[in-house]
Amino acid sequence: MLLDAATLSRIAGLKLRARAVVEGVLSGLHKSPSQGQSVEFAEHKEYAPGDELRHLDWKAYGKFDKFYVKRFEHETNLRAVMVVDTSGSMGFGTSGLSKLDVGRVMAATLAHLLIRQQDAAGVALVAQGRFAEIPPRSTAGHLGAVLEALESATPHGLTDLALTADTLAEKLPRRSLVCVFSDFFDERQDALKRILALRSRKHDVAVFHLVDKAELEFPFDDPTLFLSMEDDRRVEVNPREIRESYLEEFNRFLESTRDACRAADCDYERVRTDEPIDEVLLRFLGRRGGKL
Questions:
Q1: Does residue 207 sit in the same domain as residue 63?
Q2: Element (H, E) at 25
Q3: Per the domain annotation, does 292 fall within a domain?
């Protein structure tokens, strides 16, 4: 059974939430873990039929009179950075989980999957004036640091994806997977363009556009005072008078974001805070043949 936002909101702790989603995704993909191989020695294991004979450790045999096989740490083929927007607007949510909650669970799940397949994963928590980074690594113990950083993320301040894009362009050393989790409420007109420009640098860019049900449907009737979650702006309106124009403008924003991503050859996934997160990830991974 796929987990929905209400179910996840009742699960305590990001680690537990991420693990639950991972199990759902793996079940949907019918995948099993595999042992990778590289030139870096990791550990010994006792020989079992089917193991590679060329990895037998004869020194260990001479010492213990038993056959042991050398196991190797997987040589990382992929470096991935989970970029999570932690600006104030990401704290909005009406379905049990905020946009930031959904972004954190998705980022944690993908990092979990990547490290599980022995690729390197890291995280960047971003907003105006903030770029907190855990660089990508592939070791099993590294997942704890990624989850701890995500767990500590709180929504605050203005969106600044333009600075984020520039920082990533400087920091990413080679072709990487960049997953961006944001509502893209950035007032700078070129913010999205600069994020997508990472694709021209040969990075693989995946955009997860986070939206809440209330933003999509605008279910307000009575005169309402709307407060900005990123600064001190406030406006009182009659929702009935502006609903049509709001929905038209918001849908135009969603479509233009999607079209820009597709034109730049970047993955685009619109994510509602009230839909099953593992279902979203299955769609994403399904387009990629089940692989990151």
A1: no
A2: helix 14-29
A3: no
Q: How many domains does the chain have?
A: 2
pLDDT bin (cut points 50, 70, 90) of residue 36 is: very low
Handedness of CA 80, 85, 91, 93 (dihedral sign): negative
Q: Which residue has the tokens 């809440």?
A: 212
Contact 192, 85 (CB under 8 A): no
225: buried, middle or exposed (CB in 10 Å: 19+, 13-18, 0-12)? exposed
pLDDT over 90 percentage in the chain: 55
> Does the CA dihedral 17-19-25-27 come out positive or negative?
negative
Nearest to 73 by CA among 32, 119, 134, 136: 119
Whole-model pTM: value is: 0.80
User: Exposure string (b/e) for 127-143, b if CB count within 10 Å is 16 or more?
Assistant: bbebbebbebbbeeebb
Q: Which residue has the tokens 């993955």?
A: 267
CA distance 75 to 31: 20
